[in-house]
């Protein structure tokens, strides 16, 4: 029978297989480097031992780390891009553990003295480093060192927009991973992100401000990272957020930028879900007007907008509208190997999307082997197959019972954690 566990924020994961598939018993292991399986080297057809491939990757990364200290900006940027690729595609905890201070120093130097492109790439590598080191002491050390410079670039109106956008995403991810139990760092990060996206909030006369090109993308990144960190806040803080931000976000649905409108719509749905987790009877006070706005966006046929933009907008806002009106959410299944996680709420979607934005195509590999992601998504230790154990089946009815139990336990667990954080705050 598959194991169903609740991770951080009640994210449900499954260490098993889909309906009518075979569910294999598994043995735990704690590092992808311990696998003895072989892989086919692309383009050659030669069989390469996984351990050998890992060692070759680490040798290349050592050179990249050395190149981070080069005087040439071009060399440093190339090294950062290689680290970006390496950190996203493999789990490298043991390798990075003894090099974390050197890497953090180099990243801080690139953020302080590099150009816009170098700063943007360095910020992304900061987020990946936190994901690699996890939420323990090592990750916290790195975050405390890098948080001030990430925040400084984020709120600096003279910094390049790509760098600020990358810092917004990195600050949200690093704080989510490394400072979820530190109320002070959490509140500071939330405040810095908030100070950025409120630039799109309505003016005193109720109209939306005009913003220059590139700013809506920055505001979207800041808003999405802010929403991610809201999932860590205690109930008292959530109530304050709902009262202050919901009316203003409602007005932002009129923004002329489609991607910002979508980010706002998803954030509204997430905040409503947080409100309903605290109080099942929660309802936004101007719900009828909000639903009217959502209906207009869900059926928008404005020819001035690109066809793909209209299609994407209608799809997202139909989902948001159904959730606000009926608490309906279309569950999404993310399959990797014989395992899967289920995205069945706006909170879980934001958490998964945040990791996907940072890890890109490597997100499934990290779901399989990274203990941090497996803990957050309730999957338990990384798995290897034991082919000698007989396969067993799980019925749809059994799965439904497991899923229902996990859903009911989610709210109790989250509110319990929030109460503890409220005491600190």
UniProtKB/TrEMBL annotation:
Start and end residues of each stretch annotated as Disordered: 34-55
Domain Interferon-related developmental regulator C-terminal: 370-422
Domain Interferon-related developmental regulator N-terminal: residue ranges: 27-325
Comp. bias intervals (Acidic residues): 43-55
Native species: Sinocyclocheilus anshuiensis
InterPro entries reported in the protein's UniProt record: ARM-like (IPR011989), ARM-type_fold (IPR016024), IFRD (IPR039777), Interferon-rel_develop_reg_C (IPR006921), Interferon-rel_develop_reg_N (IPR007701)
Protein name: Interferon-related developmental regulator 2-like
Pfam families: IFRD, IFRD_C
Family: Belongs to the IFRD family.
């Amino acid at each position: 029978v598959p194991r169903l566990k609740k991770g951080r924020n009640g994210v449900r994961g499954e260490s098993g297989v889909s309906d009518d598939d075979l569910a294999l018993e598994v043995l735990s292991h704690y590092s992808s480097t311990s696998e003895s399986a072989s892989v086919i080297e692309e383009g050659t057809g030669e069989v390469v031992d996984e351990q050998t491939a890992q060692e070759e990757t680490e040798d290349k990364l050592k050179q990249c780390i050395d190149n981070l200290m080069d005087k040439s900006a071009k060399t440093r940027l190339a090294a950062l891009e290689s680290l970006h690729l390496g950190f996203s595609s493999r789990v490298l905890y043991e390798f990075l553990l003894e090099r974390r201070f050197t890497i953090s120093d180099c990243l801080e130097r690139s953020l302080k003295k590099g150009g816009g492109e170098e700063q943007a790439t360095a910020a992304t590598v900061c987020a990946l480093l936190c994901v690699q080191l996890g939420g323990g002491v090592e990750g916290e050390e790195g975050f405390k060192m890098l948080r001030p410079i990430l925040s400084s670039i984020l709120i600096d109106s003279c910094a390049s927009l790509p760098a600020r956008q990358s810092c917004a995403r990195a600050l949200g991810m690093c704080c989510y991973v490394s400072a979820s139990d530190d109320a002070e760092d959490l509140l500071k990060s939330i405040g810095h992100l908030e100070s950025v996206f409120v630039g799109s909030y309505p003016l005193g006369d109720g109209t939306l401000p005009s913003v220059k090109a590139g700013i809506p993308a920055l505001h979207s990144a800041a808003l999405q990272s802010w929403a991610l960190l809201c999932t860590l806040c205690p109930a008292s803080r959530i109530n304050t957020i709902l009262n202050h931000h919901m009316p203003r976000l409602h007005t932002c649905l009129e923004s002329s930028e489609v991607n910002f409108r979508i980010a706002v719509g998803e954030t509204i749905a997430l905040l409503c879900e947080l409100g309903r987790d605290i109080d099942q009877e929660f309802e936004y006070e101007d719900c009828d007007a909000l639903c009217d706005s959502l209906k207009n966006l869900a059926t928008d046929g404005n020819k001035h907008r690109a066809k793909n933009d209209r299609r994407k907008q209608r799809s997202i806002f139909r989902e948001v509208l159904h959730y606000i009106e009926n608490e309906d959410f279309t569950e999404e299944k993310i399959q990797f190997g014989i395992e899967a996680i289920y995205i069945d709420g706006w909170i879980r979607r934001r958490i998964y999307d945040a990791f996907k934005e940072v890890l890109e195509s490597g997100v499934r590999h990290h779901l399989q082997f990274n203990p941090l992601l497996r803990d957050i998504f309730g999957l338990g230790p990384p798995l290897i197959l034991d082919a000698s154990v007989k396969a067993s089946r799980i019925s749809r009815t059994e799965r439904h019972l497991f899923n229902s139990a996990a859903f009911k336990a989610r709210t109790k667990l989250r509110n319990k954690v929030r109460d503890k954080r409220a005491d600190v705050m």
